[in-house]
Amino acid sequence: MKxxxxxxxxxxxxxxxxxxxxxxxxxxxxxxxxxxxxVKSATINMIRFTAExxxxxxxxxxxEHQSPAKIMTELGFDVDVLGEKRIAGxxxxxxxQANSGEGxxxxxxxxxxxxxxxxxxxxxxxxxxxxxxxxxxxxxxMEFIKKxxxxxxxxxxxx
Length: 159
Hints:
Blueprint: H1 12-15, H2 27-35, E1 39-42, E2 47-49, H3 51-62, H4 68-74, H5 79-82, H6 84-100, H7 119-158
Antiparallel strand pairs: 1-2
């Protein structure tokens, strides 16, 4: 979808598509962030966290029900430097990684770092998924037909 120019007035419908620019870290803030043992790497625009950080953050969030800001503070980060939106983004990404079933990792998953999948294996997996989907559909269709037959039989008995 086309994004609005933030300098132009937008309708209400398009306001949610305006891209907000992240705060850039100053050189002093960047030094402090890079010194944190939970940081894998950092630039003026972004932070990459270690797998240990992600596991600890997620454990505290899910098991101890701590707020993301409190967790970040306790793990040695200044929440005022990071900002609310960046902390919310960290939580969103961690939730995605936790729900992926692949666990937490130090870096982004790229095609080069992803486990290679043989083409025949991938095609076989797709074929199996298609057959499973078709089977589930046919089972639902059969249940629908059975219910119609039962309803017809009951209607005939009542006459």
